[in-house]
Q: What sequence folds into this?
């Protein structure tokens, strides 16, 4: 009686011990099947990558728009600086004409654009403003506003014309980290046909 009971107990213990091993074998077999099954892989990759690609595309457009607007502002400032460098004198009416030209050259940018034309002289080892003519409601340039690093190398008594443009910029998307600002571009240039351009109010 005890022998039969012992055999039954051993058989039960053996079956219980073998059950985890069978479970592990089934799990391993299922894992091998899943590893070889590529159904749905394309859908998963699509769901992961498409939002990233869309974000990259939209952000690229925003950065392109910012660089394009700055490039257009630089080109417009160079055109105006070249026109000024060919003059022998400047008047308020002339500055007003250049202001209108700036509006036309940058018609696609936000309103509020203006410019400032100043004559800067180097004397006694420092730069100082001889005269300054802003357009619109802009303020004249002062000696305190001058940064010697923005001027070319000058000798004693030299004068240059500093053409400044102020162009508002608004990004097409704010969440890209590009902020709205005013592009302040400075174009120092030497007079072409005279040693110093005069200002006639």
A:
């Amino acid at each position: 009686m005890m022998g039969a009971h012992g055999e039954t107990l051993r058989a039960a213990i053996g079956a219980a011990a073998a059950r985890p091993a069978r479970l592990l074998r089934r799990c391993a077999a299922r894992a091998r099947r899943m590893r070889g099954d590529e159904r749905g892989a394309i859908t998963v990759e699509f769901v992961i990558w498409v939002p990233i690609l869309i974000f990259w595309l939209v952000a690229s457009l925003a950065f392109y728009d910012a660089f394009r607007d700055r490039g257009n502002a630089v080109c417009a400032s160079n055109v105006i600086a070249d026109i000024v460098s060919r003059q022998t004198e400047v008047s308020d009416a002339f500055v007003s004409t250049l202001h209108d030209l700036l509006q036309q050259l940058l018609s696609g940018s936000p309103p509020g654009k203006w410019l400032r034309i100043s004559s800067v002289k180097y004397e006694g080892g420092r730069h100082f403003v001889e005269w300054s003519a802003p357009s619109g409601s802009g303020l004249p340039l002062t000696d305190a506003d001058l940064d010697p690093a923005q001027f070319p190398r000058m000798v004693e008594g030299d004068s240059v014309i500093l053409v400044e443009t102020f162009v508002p910029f608004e990004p097409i998307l704010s969440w890209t980290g590009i902020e709205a600002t005013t592009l302040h571009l400075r174009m120092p240039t030497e007079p072409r046909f005279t040693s110093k351009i005069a200002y006639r109010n």
